[in-house]
Amino acid sequence: MGPTAEELPRWRAAARIASRARDLGVGLVVPGARRRDVADQIEAFIRAEGAEPAFPTNLSRNDEAAHFTPGPDDPATFGAGDLVKVDVGAHLDGAIADTADTVEVGGTRRYENLIRAAREGLRAGIAEVRAGAEIEAIGRAVAAAIRARGFKPIVDLTGHSIERYLLHAGTSIPNVPGHASGRLSEGEIIAIEPFATNGVGSIGNGPFGNILRFRADPGPADPVLARLYGRFRTLPFATRWADAPEEREALRRARRTLQSYPVFVERGHGWVAQAEHTVRVGAAGAEVLSAPVGP
């Protein structure tokens, strides 16, 4: 179900903020930059624009496909040649935009064609979007574009429908054919999210990625936990966002009510590029909500 006419301006505004935050992040990922500082600057920009991060900034590197965000004490820096996925989200009162791009740190250009494969997959998928279109057609187009450059789409990572306060609202938008049924509905919001790799084309679970999510409202019994739920609801959040000692202790007490996100790592340890836009399904095509914003 898509946003109402009254809600739609909020979605467009959130997407403009997310687009600018993504592009800011791409510019910040340079040799020697500390991962924690880059994530903090992107999220500070989103908040300064009047929105909130819809999830922690993902800065997954090299064979990491998704779900890495720096922890509270992360000292690591980016190095020349790293392949970094800058995946950001912003929301305004639950109206969510999700967008990503990939940068090769230091301009070494070894993986330029891999980055192009992900971006071309994204463009090909968006070209299939219109009311009544088969979701299958998006995956077919994405896969064909990535394979045309000699790479593989990651079969077990998908785009997704988005609803208010629901980043993954139930409908998957695969990046390969044969994994989807159903058709797009006019007005709905979806994220198209190709991942291209020079590996085997699937992912496994790596270490904890410093991202958590409340599975449900924990209730008022624990005031600190209730306050944290009031901030994040069921959207993903970073361990570094709950930095007060009493907040960290509350999260330890509530492990059973929290979902933790592992880093997704390419099974063959191939390197991964990602590109993503949030789009609104129109009668005759897609409105790309997170398209680059001019100065």
Description:
The chain has 6 helices and 16 strands. By secondary structure, the chain is of the alpha+beta class. The strands form 4 sheets. A 5-stranded antiparallel sheet has the order 8-7-9-15-16. Strands 1, 2, 4 and 5 form a 4-stranded antiparallel sheet that branches. It has one domain: Creatine Amidinohydrolase, CATH 3.90.230.10.
Shape estimate: globular
The fourth-level CATH homologous superfamily is Creatinase/methionine aminopeptidase superfamily
Low-confidence stretches: none
- Mean pLDDT, as a whole number? 96
End-to-end CA span: 32 Å
CATH topology: Creatine Amidinohydrolase
Helix run count: 6
Name of the CATH class: Alpha Beta
Sheet with the most strands, sense and barrel status: 5 strands, antiparallel
Helix content: 25-40%
Tell me the structural class: alpha+beta
- In terms of DSSP E residues, the strand content is 25-35%
Q: What is the level-2 CATH architecture name?
A: Alpha-Beta Complex
Describe the secondary-structure layout:
Elements: H1 8-28, H2 35-48, E1 52-53, E2 58-61, E3 64-66, E4 83-92, E5 95-104, H3 112-127, H4 135-148, E6 152-153, E7 158-162, E8 172-174, E9 189-192, E10 195-197, E11 203-214, H5 223-232, E12 237-238, H6 245-253, E13 258-266, E14 272-274, E15 277-281, E16 286-288
Antiparallel strand pairs: 1-4, 2-4, 3-13, 4-5, 6-10, 7-8, 7-9, 9-15, 10-14, 11-12, 11-13, 15-16
Helix pairs in contact: 1-2, 3-4
